[in-house]
Every structure is written in structure tokens, then in C-alpha cells.
Amino acid sequence: MTTPPTKSMTAEGDMADTVAVPKAGATLFRRFLAFAGPGYMVSVGYMDPGNWATSLAGGSKFGYTLLSVILVSNLMAILLQSLCARLGIGTGLDLAQACRSYLSRPASYALWFVCELAIIACDLAEVIGTAIALKLLFKIPLIFGALITALDAFLLLYLMQKDVRRLEAFIIVLLVTIMACFAVQIAMVSPSLSGIAQGFFQPTTEIFTNHAMLYLAIGILGATVMPHNLYLHSSLVKTRNFEKTEAGRWQAIRWATLDSTLALMLALFVNAGILIIAAGVFYTSGNREVADIEQAYQLLTPAFGTSVAATLFAIALLASGLNSTLTTTLAGQIVMDGFLNLRIAPWLRRLVTRGLAIIPVIIIIALYGEKEVGKLLIFSQIILSMQLPFAVIPLVAFVSSRKKMGVFVAPLWLKVTAWGIAAVILTLNIKLLFDIFTQ
């Protein structure tokens, strides 16, 4: 089995082994609290502004139908994140480091390049989402709002200089804010419970024959099972200073898996909530082409007869965008360090990753105007879905190898399920590409 890297090798630098874990004899609740955190940081990516765009479009156009896609995507994410925990804790290598260690240099560089494209696509959506929220709440033009998001990098740097637990606590507070906003909005909508149940548990085959529905379904898949989140989680699980014994690693894997599973159930609630609101407000009233976040915001007030719902919508969007940009910037650092073993000042690295997202946003807004932002958000999620196989396949291959994982190798049922998920993702992407180039 691979020897765990030293601290100088870790992608997260001085964050490795910085969170104390109670020793034997501590209560289960204390141990749970010690491991709680990385899953919630990862779950942020599953409810970012890109998810908003795809869920709003899916709910307004097809009602509750695509709830099954959100559910399946979330279940896929839960399993894949459990594999990330197994890889990071079992080998001491995050996914990027494993690619650099086990693959040829050309293959590793190619995967790094593809992952950077995915991060830029994700960051693009998050910068736009934050800028839209600032515009809705404070009337700040989108182009200036995008520039303001550069401050997120400094906020991340400040929080990480304190300790990783403060960063986790800040992110959890924003997550609770998002969830509370949607809980109130759903209560105001009074959606069809039978429609929700049917959407979750009675999927339709029309998803595979209706190009528009398939496009949104794959967008939801890409927005939910984000490729860079696999790199992020496999690194964050190493922040816990658990016992570096076989028993200690097994316990850490179980706690980390529980943490990410609970966190992703929260993400399921938020993603489903966006679609349920869109279906309950827009689809049922005949507004079936609402794919633009600003348009949704403007339609909420007349739909409810009060501005409360619209304000809560914008507050949740701001919290979502702020949260997501923090974790995506951190993922960019982990990917750069893991693949390239590149050592540059943390503040400079964060400014580079943030700038790679802000500059395209400014150019696009300047060239095409603010009205094209909604389409760009959905397209960015399609790009993410296209990148998924390049992260999922190496992850599944690594955790399926006894030579690399030792006693922590995935059992047969987990291997079969994981390879099945990889096959589904790859097949759907090929189907979408075929439809795009033949229609």
C-alpha cells in the first residue's frame, strides 16, 4: 500500500492533520463532531448557482418530472464521495496526487488540463451567480459584481490562516441560511405533494427521447456530481488527525462517509427545493420558459403578492455564490498542487484561480450583455458533465486496485456500482453529443 505523503507533499499544505480527533473512549457524538465539516464544504458545490439555473429551467419547463434526475444524481454523488474518502484516508493521497503518482506524465497533465477547464466552468457560474445576487439585492451592475467576487479569495485566505474549522463553520452558517430561505419559500408555494412524489419515484423514459429534457437532465447531472469536488473531498478528509493505523483509517473512512452523506442530503433538499418552487410557481401558472435567475426573481413577487419570497431567493443566491466560490478556489489550489506539485504563495494562487473565472465573465458581459448570462450558466453545467468521466474513471480505477489501496480496496459490490455510474455518465454524455451534432 502507498505510504502516506509527508506534510510537505500534501495538496492542502498546512491544513493536513490540523483538526484533532478524540481518542478511544470519547463519545460517538464527539467523534462525529470531530469529523463533521469536509462533507459540508463539498456539498456547497452541489447547490451552487449552476444548480439554480438547471433546476429553475427544469422545473418551469417540465414541472416535477426531473426530480428523479436530481435524486439519482445525488445518490451517485454520495457514492462517489465515499470513494474519495476511501482514497484520501486509505492511501494518504488525494485524487490529484494519485493521478500524478500512478499515471504517466502525459496522462496526468491531460487530466489536470481537463480539470482546470471544469473548475473555470464552475467558477464562471459561481461568479455570475454572486454578481446576479448583488445586482438583485443592491442594484450593483453585473460587471462590477463580478469584480467584487475577487474579494472571496482574500476571505478564504483569512479564514484558512485562522484554522480549517473556522472555514468549515463559516460555510455551514451559509448553508443553513440557504436551507432556511428555501424552507420558507416552499412553505409559501404549497406545492403538490403527489406531484413531488411522482417526480421523485416515477421517472419517465421521455428523458432519453426529448432532447430539451435530456439537455437539462445532463446539466443537472453535471451541476450535481461536479468533477472538481471529487478532488476537493479526497484532500479535505486528510485534515483530520486520526490515528494512522489500519483501525484508525477504517474509523476515519466510516465517519467521513457519514459526514458527506448527511451533507449531500442537505444539498438534495436545496436542489429539489429550487425545482419544486419553479414547478409550483412557474410551470403551474404557464410560465414555462423561466431559465433566467433574474427573470425568476422578478416573477416571484407578483406570484406571491409579496416581495418576501423574492428577497429570500436573492439572499439564498448570494449565500450560495459566496460559499461556492470559496470552495472552488480551494479546489483549484488542491488540483494545482496535486497534479503539478507547484508551490507558489497561497494568496497568489487564489488570485490566479479567481482571475481565470472573472476575466471570461467580464468579457462575455461586455460582448453579449447581461441577457445571455442565463444561457451561459446552463451551458457551463453541460461542460462540467462532459468533464465528469475524466475524474470519475480514475477515481473508480484507483479504489478498485488492491495494489494501490491494500486492505482499503473497494469491495466487489461497490466496484460494480461505481463502474455502472461511470458508464451511465459516459453514455449520457455521448448521447447528448450525438444529438447536438445530428440535429
Descriptive labels:
mainly alpha, 78% helix, 1% strand, disordered N terminus
Pick out the low-confidence regions.
1-13
Q: What is the succession of H and E elements?
A: EHHHHHHHHHHHHHEHHHHHHH
Radius of gyration: 21 Å
Q: Helix fraction? A: over 70%
Strand order of the biggest β-sheet: 1-2
Identify the overall geometry.
globular
Total beta strands: 2
The average pLDDT value, as a whole number, equals: 83
Structural class: mainly alpha
Count of helix runs: 20
**What is the straight-line distance between the termini?**
49 Å
Which strand-content bin applies to the residues?
under 5%
The profile of the biggest β sheet is: 2 strands, parallel
Mind sketching the topology for me?
Elements: E1 19-20, H1 28-35, H2 38-43, H3 49-62, H4 67-91, H5 95-102, H6 105-138, H7 142-148, H8 151-162, H9 164-189, H10 193-201, H11 206-209, H12 211-224, H13 227-236, E2 240-241, H14 246-283, H15 293-304, H16 308-340, H17 346-368, H18 373-399, H19 402-405, H20 412-438
Parallel strand pairs: 1-2
Helix pairs in contact: 3-12, 3-14, 3-18, 4-10, 4-12, 4-13, 4-14, 4-18, 5-16, 6-7, 6-16, 6-17, 6-18, 7-17, 8-9, 8-16, 8-17, 9-14, 9-16, 12-18, 12-20, 13-16, 13-18, 15-16, 16-17, 18-20
